[in-house]
Amino acid sequence: MMKLLGTTALASLLATGAIAAEVTVGAANVSDYLDPGRDHSNVGSQFYYNAFDTLVGKNHDRLEMEWVPALASEWKLIEPTLMELKLREGVKFHNGEDLTADDVVFSLNRMYQATFPPYVVRSKDRLSNFAEAIKIDDYTVQVRVEREEPLWETLLNLQQVMIIPEEYTKGLTGDPKVAEDSDFEAFSLTPVGTGPYKVAEFQPGQKVVYERFDGFWGEQAPLEKATVIRMPETASRITALKTGEADIVTNIAPDQLELINADPNLKTEGSATALFHVMIMNVNHPHLKDPKIRQAMSLSIDRDLLNEALWLGKAVVPSSHTMEEMGQLHQPDLVTFEYDMEKAKSLLAESSYNGEEIVFDAFPVYYTNGVLAAQAIMEMWAEAGINGKLNVTEKWTGNDPEMMARSWSNPMYFADPFGSFGVMWAPDGPSEGAGRFNTDEEYAEMWERFRFNGDVELRNAAYAELMDRIKQDPPVLPLYRPFESWAMKSNVNWAPKKGHIPYVLDFRAGSISFN
Amino acid sequence: MTDISHSFTLKAIRLPGIGLWKQANWIVRIATLVGLALVVLSVAAPLVAPFDPNDQSLISRLRPPLGFDRYKDGFFLGTDELGRDILSRCTFGLRLTFALALAGACISLLIGGTLGLVAGLAGGHLDDLIMGLVDAQIAIPMTLIALLTLSVFGSSIDIMILVLGIYGWEQFARIIRAEVKKLRQMPFVEAAQAAGAPPLRIAFVHVLPNVVSPIVVQFTLNFSNIVIWESTLSFLGLGVQPPTATLGSMVGTGRDYLPTAPWIVLAPALTILLLTFAVQILGDWLRDHADVRLRSR
Amino acid sequence: MIGYTLRTLIKMAVTLFVIVSLVFFATRLSGNPVDFVLGVGITEDDKQLLIKYYGLDGSIWTQYWHYLGSILSGEFGLSFLERRPVSAIVAERIGPSLKLIFGTMVFTFCVSIPLGIAAAIYRDRLAGSAIMIIAFLGYAVPAFVLAIVMIMVFSYWLNWLPVVGNSTFSHYIMPTIAMSGMWVAALTRFTRNAMLDVLSQDYMRTARAKGMPERVVILKHGLRNASITLLSVMGLQIAGWIAAGSVVVESIFSWPGIGEMLVRSAIQRDYPVLQFGVLSVAVAVILINAAVDIAYAYADPRIRLAKGT
Q: In this protein, which residues make up the domain named Solute-binding protein family (chain A) (predicted)?
């Protein structure tokens, strides 16, 4: 019996080793739906890049932004607010349809002029400047914006404006001539794109199977097949790697790295992901109205100690809400957030704080080290004299007026301060709209200069002013860029690429290979 | 037959413990000692624990127990993922777990016992109603009830006790009802009924003493189940709020460290093992000795 | 007889109605899906937009009325998260769940009934105590600890058994044992106690006095009579497995079953999935209970007689 089991396990080990063109990924989470337009979750971003393309591509090997032709072979600004794009010819969707300007206009306008509520919600925070896409001929499209747009390529490279087929989508339910809400719902279960892999099987929340798409317009995919299976338990994921049931596994906590790296058949790859774990604070909560209290809450958190202890020093603690991916807009010299226990204590003494309980909400398992960091923060607060209480809950309390502080993450949705800080802290953006952040005319004016100015220096200056406002009346503290790791068999060459948004599982040509 | 059981009861009352101790075999004696030790430990937790169970030391996380490399002086059982002393957390965790499980088991006995007795004695529509409730309870996964209760009322120790108290009442109810129904056919109960004894008297004098044995067994089962279930809630992220330690929450949140720092889980898991073991062996033994018919053989 | 059946059916329907209503109101009291994953980081206006889109804007009574109506017409709606009919989701997961439960059931009964009988027969000897101690172990270890320890030993170190999914027989070994642990302990104990009860009855003494061999006495008379108590316990256990037992094991072994679906939909307040899931489980449990009741009445003539009068 045991011998039999032993040999089957061995056989499967050999099998996965021999046919290197297939991989199995054990992921902590798998999406419940696959539609790049409505999704901006950390779970979802793993999946889209293999199966979908944007008009403007990006060289993901580099940290710096380098735009490359993708579904659009060339693009130029023909008016200050009008971009003309020439489409690549001979591109096919996974279902065999040819890509034409109709598909592009359909895909873009489903976001630019959204009526389907999940699209409406998603497009508001980042695409509100985009008015419409217009078909000129079968392979020419124009995109019009409301105001001059400094981030043209960036915003045409977004996951949310990946291109999907018009006819196929409209025909999914009801009237094949009309895009009903139910068409988009159906699409999210049977997604079709133009990428090097087609989604051959999708079991929501459990499994995604990619198969090589032979009709891909670019370089052929290196894998015949890639299967992503949900394996929520850490011990199971690591073991699956060891038994050969998985070739790559995601979400490896720093504490597990040593164990895996000690095994000669396994290795890990990781990076300080382009995303901040943050603490948000409700500026309108009666107990937190005094900015000094929130400054003290922020100043008393020793983020470097958290990094050393929980991330083995591999995370990155920022001095301001800025990331090196932003190139010229990266401002590491700004000091917006720091640790100063003495200052925290004296600010607290000056403030209106009277020992009220300050509740800190945290999701139970969603963020690596999330609950640990929250518990450590409670101790740090206690040292400063803040009476903190941890409340671990699955509930999203960010829209609740009773919410005082909570943990969250602020990903870099695209490589610009607007793509991380800006998505959340714009005037009338989600934070203000949820009632826990206030802006005024002055803030809005700084915002305008930062968002729409064509000159990088002026944008940086305006952003510095915004950061100063955040420092004086803090609604947020970025804790660190978490060090996220993937573990894999030693013969797999794969690593997260610098140019991607967080968590992308990129299996395109040049991204994965085997020894 | 009745004489023997009477003398047994009286003896037990006169010399609590000693008579029982003499009759016990070595396994039961060990279980008793372990049980007593755990009770003492949990009562005296503040005296026994060398550190505050919630004191963190982020620079000395995940240190192993005495006798291993990187051992940190004074932290005999090692430190956990936030550098807290595992011995101290285990002692305080035991204390809270004990309290939670005891309170929970008592509540479910009270609810289930009352309903089961009523259903069994009253019969008719009341029986139907109660059994309907039991069926409904069995058919709704307990995790869902816990999840929804905790999210409506918030997660505090009081609510936790309530949630744990709901756990298993339906088993008490079903078992007691079944026993009562069996007993109702017995001559002595029928005789009492025929003699016009009031229902409450029948319930307390004739029926209740005779269902003690299944109740004791079920109580010990329920106690152990609650201990385990509390850890399952922690596994699902629904247990007591951190940083509070219970044995279950230590195991539930420490499981990710089983491959790398097994001592985090080992100490509380072994304590759970000892606790449930002792309780069940004692329960089983008490049952054997309280069972009238068995002793008469 | 027709009256009895009818009454039982009405009782079942009432129980189901109560469950469905309880779940409906409890979930809505505890927040709506937009308070969870769907609503992370959106403005209040957008939140209202989504609430309206998902049909959560009416008063709770309107929603309840609508829900009852849709149940009667067999429409159980779309999952909020997965946007496909909940019946499709449950259908996808029921198979793996049933297979796991069946495996667990077979394992549990095969192990614990012989163990319990042996423990009763040898109750005064070391063997009896040893059996009970081993059985108690099942109670003393949380299923997830047992599962993870097994994974570490049999998969991580020895590389004998697979940990993910349910495609071959060897995939069943660890999940089944992990799920059985507690139930083996419970059933062994109940079997033992039921046997002890029976062993002390007068008719057993009579049988012995007639000179029947002990084994025959135990197996023929003992087991048959003990099965009355066992039956009620078994009913509870099967129901327990279906309703509760599997979420932990399912998530550890990436087993796409009902338990994991129920907990996930409850956490995210995916009402349609949760409601349909609970309803399906409840129907299954109630049917099993009814079957057990009938078997119970059949096995114990006293109850059958009582019901007849």
A: 66-418
CB contact under 8 A, C42 and A230: no
- Tell if the CB–CB gap between A371 and B253 is shorter than 8 Å: yes
Domain span at B216: 52-295
Find all residues with CB under 8 Å of A120, minimum gap 6, and list them.
A114, C46, C49
What tens digit of pLDDT does each residue of B230-282 get?
Answer: 888 888 878 888 888 999 889 888 888 888 898 999 999 999 989 988 888 88
Report chain B residues whose CB lies below 8 A from the CB of A371: 242, 253
Angle of helix B169-184 versus helix B124-139 axis, rounded to 10: 150
Q: What is the pTM of this model?
A: 0.87
Closest CA to C121 of C268, C247, C222, C20: C222
CA distance C56 to chain B (A): 18
Q: Which residue has the tokens 């079944």?
A: B178
- C115 in a domain, yes or no? yes
Q: Which two tokens stand for residue A229?
A: 């299976």
Same domain, C55 and C103: no
Residue in A closest to B155 by C-alpha = A391
Q: Respond yes or no on whether ipTM tops 0.90.
A: no
Q: What is the largest CA-CA distance in chain C?
A: 85
In Å, how far is B98's CA from the nearest CA of chain A?
23
Q: Which residues of A touch C164 (CB under 8 A)?
A: 26, 229, 231, 236, 240, 245-246
Domains of chain A: 21-34+195-273+484-515 (3.40.190.10), 52-188 (3.90.76.10), 275-480 (3.10.105.10)
Cβ distance B175 to C142 less than 8 Å, yes or no, reads no
Does a structural domain hold residue B211?
yes
**C181 and C244 together in one domain:** yes
Q: Is residue C219 part of a domain?
A: yes
Which residue segment(s) compose the domain that C67 sits in? 2-73
Count the domains in chain B.
Answer: 1
How confident is the model over C167-186, as pLDDT tens digits? 888 899 999 998 888 788 87
Q: Where are the beta strands (DSSP E) in C39-164?
A: none
In a domain, B126, yes or no: yes
Q: Are A107 and A161 in contact (CB under 8 A)?
A: yes
Asked if C88 reaches chain A (Cβ–Cβ under 8 Å), the answer is: no
